[in-house]
Structures are given as C-alpha cells and as structure tokens.
C-alpha cells in the first residue's frame, strides 16, 4: 500500500483527480483523532488500483479548532455517506456537502456529540434531545407519503423507509438506519488485538468469517507476517462455504418471501440448514466464528472432515441449482423479477456499489481477483457479471456464483492440506488494511496499533456503500416490489450500524 500525505489545500484536488481523471474507485473514507499528538484530526481516503493489485491511501490533517475541508461528495458521490459519518462521529465538517443532515445520530442525540473523539468516554450518558431530522418531501396533486418501519412485519432488523408515491408508483425512496448502533469502533479502542477479534466476528452475523479474515489480513499486513500455505487454503474454504450458505438463503428468500413463491423458501431454508449444521460439525460454530484468526486458522481439518465438507456442499449446490431451475421456468416468478429494481451501471459506479449489487449491473470488480489474498492468487475464481441490473440479474448471479464457489471448495478439499496452520503475529505499531470479497461484497478493516493495543479500528461492511444507493433502485417501481428490491440487495443493518 502506498500512503500519500498532502496538505489540506491539496487534499480535495488530489482526490478529485484520482477519481475523475484516473477513474480509481474510492473504497474507504474515515477519520482519526490525533489531538493528543498535537496533529489535530486526520481524514484518510483509500483508493483501489485494481489493475496493479495495489491500494493508495491519501491523508491530510485538519486543525483541532476548525476541522473543515472541502467536501469530496460534490464531485465524488462515493464519499457521500462517509463524510456524513465523519460529521456525526468526529465533528469534521465537509464544506459544501450536498446533504449535510445527520446520518448516525437520531433526533434524541444532542448537538455537538461526537462519540469517536478520544475525549468521549464509551459509557457517557447523554441527555435526551429532540433535534429535527427532515426527511425528503414532495408536494403535488395525488402525491402521498408512506412511512414503513422501523419495526417490520418480518423478523428482520429495524430500518425506516419513507416513500413518496403517485398511486402505486414510487417517486422517491429514502432510508433511515442506525437504530441499533452498537459502538463497536469505540469499544475496540484500547483492546489488544486478541481482545478485539470477538467484536469483529460479531459485526454482522452472516459475515463472521469474512470480517475475521479482513481483520487478520490487516494485522498481518501491518506486521509483515507470512501465513502458512495450509492456512491460506483453509481460509479460502471457509469464506467460500460462507458464500454458498448465504447465496442459498438469498435465492430462497428473494423468490419465496419476496414474491410468494413459497416453495422456494420452504426448500431453500431447509437446504441452508444443511450448511449451518456442517459448519457446526466441522468448525464448532454455526456462523464460522472462532476459526480464522490473525496468523492463520485455529485447526487443521482431517480427511474425514474434508470429505464431509465436499459431500455436503455438493449436495447443497446441486439441490439449489434444481430449485433455481424450477423458479427460472416459472413465468409468474420471472414476471416479478425481470425489469424490477433496475440499478443502472453508471449509478452503480457513481455510488460505489459493491459485490453482487455492482456485478449485476455490469461492474466488473472482485477483491479475490483485483487484490488477491489467502490462496486466491493461485485459485482464481471466474468473476461473473450481468448488464441488466435488475432483480433477476442479481438472483441468477447468486446461483452461478455458487457453482464457482463449489469449484474452489473442491480444489481445497482435494489438495494437500498438511502443514502448519498458524504462526504468531507480533502486534507492531502502525497501520494496516485488510480487504476481503465477502459474499456481500468488498469488506475492509483498517487497524491502528500502538504499544500492542488498538487506537482505531475501522470495519467497513459493503452494506454501508450499498445502502447509500438504495434510493436509486426504488423510483419507477411499485410499492409491492419494494420488499423484492430490498431482498435482492440483502444489505446488513447490523453491519452498517456499527
């Protein structure tokens, strides 16, 4: 990774040039509080150089008295939510931001409350405020406003959605999240690298393996640790099992619960349970927790365990392909999925869409290929894309990605997995970044360590980026298709509500 430290005046100009002229994707923007070192506040922007498999980190310092810089969002839409997040959590103002409303803070949080500043204690009890939060509003004859959530009919996490509609047709859609903000970033401050791992694993329950791997990679990159080849292959195995499990869930959930084609849900959820039980049998946890750690993995796998994995996973993938074919040949289901929830490629690129949400719209990006990690340098998955960007494209893409994941699972299970599975990681002072292509998309963790303890940890779930573009897929669709659009992205509330 290359780090470019620039002056406050040059910061916005350089970032704009990297994005607009060189077309580099903005992968992460975050802030740091460096006042104890006499360096004010820091703003850091991570760009991806996919072609050369490199990262470029652009940094600048802002004065303590007036931490303000010219907003990047005016020209780089990918920075939209990141800058609002920094305003709430650090009090860093992005001058000229087109939507400077609160993002994390709700109406009950008092003004000038910035929890990620170092002088804000994690157990601070705040007075109850009543700050206004204006939602986008449209007036006109026949225009109605429909609020949905934060409590929903299904067993899901809380989120509020506001529709402006004309009849059944959606004109605008806006989401309001952060009802379950947990303070994970604050709680990890001062922890040892070992103590922080359980927090990382629980950011989003369906991405435990991916987040733990991103965290491990960040620390290994920081300490220049070489992980044994056996552990590298087993890391591929676990994250691909996680991908197959969640694609199984989504294929069933989109068609079954999103449209009423309930046979898909009934069988799909049954098949998913096979994968969850496999994980518990082999790894001791239904959510792949406790296996991936800095330095490698917790144990090697026996021949019997590898055979169990290969046999069970093959059965699951075959069953899901049969189930997918059943749905694909249903005219009623195709009618609901095709041309619904279209995300245009230019919109996906502008907002920095990640994972299936991006590849379903023709954006050819995948961290496993663009920034190889674990054993993906040797085990190269085929990156699949579609151009239409509708719900059907995202549904079909999941079915095809399961087949690619199965190839990787078979490759690992058939290879020689003998040898060391773990090495000691020395927690050196400095900063490291880990990137993983989770089943939901590019997952990042940036870690700062001093004297063996974490001073700042920045986990970024792909949902954070994809929620920011959520309003773009609603307009033009009808209200009953909103749950289907939502399920086709399958974004994590918990992964966003850090």
Decide which structural class fits the backbone.
alpha+beta
Major β-sheet strand ordering: 1-4-3-2
CA-based shape? globular
Q: SSE string, helix = H, strand = E?
A: EHEEEEHEEEEHHHHHEEHHHHHHEEEHHH
Query: How many separate structural domains?
Result: 2
Quote the CATH topology of the largest domain: Cytochrome-c3 Hydrogenase, chain B
Low-confidence parts: none
Helix percent reads: 25-40%
Distance between the termini: 26 Å
Mean pLDDT: 94
Radius of gyration: 22 Å
What percentage of amino acids are in beta strands?
15-25%
What's the total helix number?
16
The strand count comes to: 14
CATH class call of the largest domain: Mainly Alpha
Protein name: NADH-quinone oxidoreductase subunit D domain-containing protein
Keywords: NAD, Oxidoreductase
InterPro entries: ComplexI_49kDa-like, NADH_Q_OxRdtase_suD, NADH_quin_OxRdtase_su_C/D-like, NADH_UbQ_OxRdtase_30kDa_su, NiFe-Hase_large
GO molecular function: NAD binding; NADH dehydrogenase (ubiquinone) activity; oxidoreductase activity, acting on NAD(P)H; quinone binding
Keywords:
498 residues, alpha+beta, Beta Polymerase, domain 2, Cytochrome-c3 Hydrogenase, chain B, 2 domains, 4-stranded mixed beta sheet, 3-stranded antiparallel beta sheet, 16 helices, 14 strands, 40% helix, 18% strand, oxidoreductase activity, acting on NAD(P)H
What does this structure look like?
The protein has 498 residues and is of the alpha+beta class. It folds into two domains: 2-95, Beta Polymerase, domain 2 (2-Layer Sandwich), CATH 3.30.460; 185-464, Cytochrome-c3 Hydrogenase, chain B (Orthogonal Bundle). Helices cover 40% and strands 18% of the residues. It is built from 16 helices and 14 strands. It has helices spanning 8-21, 80-90, 184-188, 193-201, 208-223, 229-259, 262-283, 303-328, 331-337, 345-351, 356-359, 367-370, 391-414, 462-468, 482-489, 493-496; strands at residues 2-5, 26-33, 41-49, 54-62, 68-70, 93-95, 143-148, 160-166, 169-176, 292-293, 296-297, 430-438, 441-450, 453-460. The strands form five sheets. It has a four-stranded mixed β-sheet. A three-stranded antiparallel β-sheet has the order 7-8-9, with no helix packed on it. The longest helix is centred in the middle third of the chain and has 31 residues, at 229-259. The protein is globular and about 60 Å long.
